[in-house]
Amino acid sequence: MGDRRKNCVEAVGRLEQIRGCDFIGCSRWYLTSPVGVEEQNWFVNGVASLGAEISAWDLLDRLLSIEAAMGRVRTEKWGPRVIDLDLLLYGADIVDETDLKIPHPYMHERRFVLAPLAEVAPDVLHPVLGKTASQLLLELRAKDQHVTLLE
To answer: Element (H or E) spanning 49, and its range?
Structure first.
């Protein structure tokens, strides 16, 4: 919602300030068709890479705090939102708890995740599937989702 690209840039600026994390880099921005609730504006997506010295739980708490500070209100699953920060991977860790699932359970099915992830970390390994981000991206069918690189 709002200026989608500006919101993403602001979120990255906030990610850079997380104590206990080193900001490594960010992909370019991608305009992507919505998944789940399709009757809404397209999303702007990207992937940021952090080196974390804090726990995955602490990192998730900080991501949720950034969302709240930017005005995110959770009303409708997959509906419009100001910002959505997902924790995709945490090294080679696997977490399967109610409020935290690592790797992100849908990341390997979503072009809007894999395209920017493969840009930032093409050789990062999905700890469950044992495939790199680049391999997973190549395995997706072209019709799975519309993704366009923003200039």
So the answer is: strand 48-52
